[in-house]
Amino acid sequence: MSLFRQGSQYLAIGLLQLSLDWLVFVAATAAGLPAIPGNLLGRVSGALLGFWLNGRYTFASGDERRHGWGRFARFLGLWLLMTAISTWLVALVAHALGLQMAWLAKPVVEGALAAANFFLLRHVVYR
Predict the structure, then answer these.
(1) Residue 54's pLDDT is what?
(2) Mapped to the 3 state alphabet, what secondary structure does the chain carry?
(3) What average pLDDT score do residues 45-61 get?
(4) Phi/psi at 51 (5° precision)
(5) Interatomic CA distance for residues 126 and 68, integer angstroms
(6) Alpha-carbon distance 35 to 92, whole Å?
(7) pLDDT of residue 4
(8) Higher pLDDT, 57 or 16
(9) Is 102 left (phi over 0), alpha (psi -120 to 50) or beta?
(10) What is the reported pLDDT for 23?
(11) Exposed e or buried b for every residue in 29-47, given b needs 16+ CB within 10 A?
């Protein structure tokens, strides 16, 4: 599979994931949920969508879909690491600059993590 094709699909799916993650985060925190659980809720929503779509389309080879418990376990480990980093950064911004700035910072944080995540997904999770 070409890196360009995978990268393009990962980007498109990532934008969907980021949109869902961000909307859930903003809605949850606007409704009164603190930043840390709000970020976790958003990331879970985006992760479930992303695991399914990336396994089905981005990293699939031919008719083989890249799902299964082994891949999900590797995905979960990577997701936990990225979620810890994301949550720490978003909570740091919320604490230092306020909730509205955390809303603006979240897409930047997630976008920066997505670049590293692509290569880790490609070589560790969906190999």
Answers:
(1) 85
(2) CCHHHHHHHHHHHHHHHHHHHHHHHHHHHHCCCCHHHHHHHHHHHHHHHHHHHHHHHHCCECCECCCCHHHHHHHHHHHHHHHHHHHHHHHHHHHHHCHHHHHHHHHHHHHHHHHHHHHHHHHHHCC
(3) 87
(4) -60, -45
(5) 10
(6) 9
(7) 87
(8) 16
(9) alpha
(10) 97
(11) beeeeebeebbbbbbebbb
Tell me the two tokens of residue 21: 């993650």
Q: What per-residue confidence (pLDDT) applies to 20?
A: 97
Residue ranges per structural domain of the chain = 3-125
Give dist(CA 62, CA 43) in Å, integer. Answer: 29
Read off the tokens for 121.
């997904």
